[in-house]
Amino acid sequence: MNTEKLKKLQSQVRIGGKGTPRRKKKVVHATAATDDKKLQSSLKKLSVNTIPGIEEVNMIKDDGTVIHFNNPKAQASLAANTFAITGHGENKQIAEMLPGILSQLGPEGLNQLKRIASSVAVPKPIDEDDEVPNLVGNFDEASKQEAKEVITEEKEKEKEKEEKKPEAETKVADKKTD
Questions:
Q1: Angle 112-114-115 (CA atoms, 0-180°, nearest 5)?
Q2: For residue 55, what are the contacts with CB-CB under 8 A and spacing of at least 6?
Q3: Is the preceding omega at residue 99 within 30 degrees of 0, hence cis?
Q4: Residue 166, pLDDT score
Q5: For residue 72, what are the CA distances in angstroms to 36, 51, 53, 57, 101?
Q6: Is the pTM of this model over 0.70?
Q7: Which of 3, 83, 130, 133 has the most CB atoms around its CB within 10 Å?
Q8: How many CB atoms lie within 10 A of CB 111?
Q9: What does residue 163 show for φ and ψ, rounded to 5 degrees?
Q10: How do residues 117-156 score in pLDDT, each as one tens digit?
Q11: What element of type H or E holds 89?
């Protein structure tokens, strides 16, 4: 193989300057666990206290979405004016959170809710008829026919029961004589 071509290919592979290895270095990312440890140590320095009894936290954004935490761990340091909410957060729309979120909305939130409601246009039904439709058939005859069928079925069941009773009585009588 041509030495010039080989040197040209080798120079294209090199990442750094002269004297650096040709292979790329595998980048090791910091895991979330180390980030969490750093956060907890920073909060510990601020002397935060855990706030018990918080069942849910809703953070309302300007675009009408809500970050919803269910049973979060809430910590606060009033001296440092710091609040920390940790847990699993879900992004939801305000419409999904109704009606439970109404008590938590301030004046800005209510204005957002009004804007959302006005943007959702109610479709108008086409060609409204307020009149009662005309009857097509006689419904009384159909209901009378159904009633007759039910009565005949009940009579047939009673006849079957009466036919079975004498057989059962004779079996009982046979057992008593034995």
A1: 65
A2: 70, 71
A3: yes
A4: 62
A5: 15, 10, 10, 7, 17
A6: no
A7: 83
A8: 11
A9: -70, -35
A10: 676 655 565 666 677 777 777 777 777 888 888 888 888 8
A11: strand 89-93
* Token pair recorded at residue 133: 């439709």
Higher pLDDT: 165 or 157? It is 157
H or E segment and range at residue 111: helix 107-119
Q: Which residues pair with 89 in a beta bridge?
A: 69
What is the rounded distance in angstroms from the CA atom of residue 57 to the CA atom of residue 78? 18
Handedness of CA 114, 119, 120, 123 (dihedral sign): positive
Choose the CATH number for 46-118 among 2.50.20.10, 2.20.70.30, 3.30.470.20, 3.10.310.40.
2.20.70.30
In whole angstroms, give the CA distance from residue 87 to residue 67.
11
- Amino acid 124: pLDDT: 60
**Nearest in space to 50 (alpha carbons), one of 28, 83, 5:** 83
Number of residues that this document lists for the chain: 178
At 84 the pLDDT is: 92
Tell me how far apart the alpha carbons of residues 85 and 73 are, in angstroms, rounded to a whole number.
6
The pLDDT of residue 8? 81
Distinct helix (H) and strand (E) counts, the chain: 5, 6
